[in-house]
Write a structure and sequence with these properties.
Blueprint: E1 4-7, E2 14-17, H1 27-40, E3 42-45, H2 52-59, E4 84-85, H3 99-106, E5 122-131, E6 139-143, H4 144-149, H5 153-159, E7 163-166, H6 168-174, H7 181-185, E8 190-193, E9 195-197, E10 204-206, E11 212-215, H8 220-234, E12 240-243, E13 250-254, E14 258-262, E15 273-280, H9 294-299, H10 308-314
Parallel strand pairs: 2-3
Antiparallel strand pairs: 1-2, 3-13, 4-15, 5-13, 5-15, 6-12, 6-14, 7-8, 7-11, 9-10
Length: about 325
Amino acid sequence: MPLKVEPILPRFGAVCSGLDLTRKLTEDEVRQVTDAMDTWGVTVWRDTHMSDADHVEFSRNFGYLERVPRREGVKFRLPFPELFDASNLNVDGEVTQDPAAIQYRKGDRLWHTDSAFMEKRTSYSLLLAHEVPPEGGETSFADTRSAYEDLPQEMKDFLEDKVGINSLWWSRKMAGADIPDEEIEERPRAKHPLVHVHKGSGRKALFIAAHTMDVEGMPREEGRALIRQLIEHCTQPQYTFSVKWNAGDMVIWDNLCSMHRGGEYAYDTYKRDMRRTTVREGTEPHTMDMGDDPFSQLFAKSPRVVDIQGARVAGR
């Protein structure tokens, strides 16, 4: 059966059906998915019946999968290192009461792009819902290609050579974590152009969101004002939509042409079990090992207030 695509917005987002994602796809079917992603940026797949193994295997069609950093003495809830735990659950599958985990996840409610704080960017994120709260917890998406195209030419010209400086800990600070500026400055940051050409579509897109703390070469306050202005522009109603989740749903988004954020819900009451794979930009399908682990280096230097793994090791 050919892929069926139902647009959500005129230029952004689509609900897709017609493919069984639990089986090995043909080359033509993989191409149908990537063509839909290049066109729409975000695709929603309802009631997939996917297991963790299905999730990982399907994701390998699109490139190398990033892996969760390991730390000695830390127990992990999920069975595959390619699965990032985007839930509010502890290792025993119960709603977490760990202050570091709760504070860390608050950053997910800001508009962001996954792994923008890494030198090696993420292309696709594939998020699968296993259990969802009875209300709230939607995920919203913003179209950074159309938003760029609608900017005044004067602003496009101004942004052409600008580079953003990105930090995971900056976004956590913006979400309320008590992280001093000097701690952010001494930890890893990544630089990426604010505007780039999206390879799959040939359209230009903004690459900017909550992780972007400064603009290289601009005075700090001016750069941060520009970042806020661009995020506000991208997240106007004509560029955004939200997905209400049901267990079994998967959403794939292209971080190189979109932003997203999680919605509010009763975080300390209801389980929201979400599991994500992330594909490294520019890698080949079914790539198994890139020979590096940049996330371990990053999270080894987590500020204590948001150090989820460190809290587990210390028993805090």
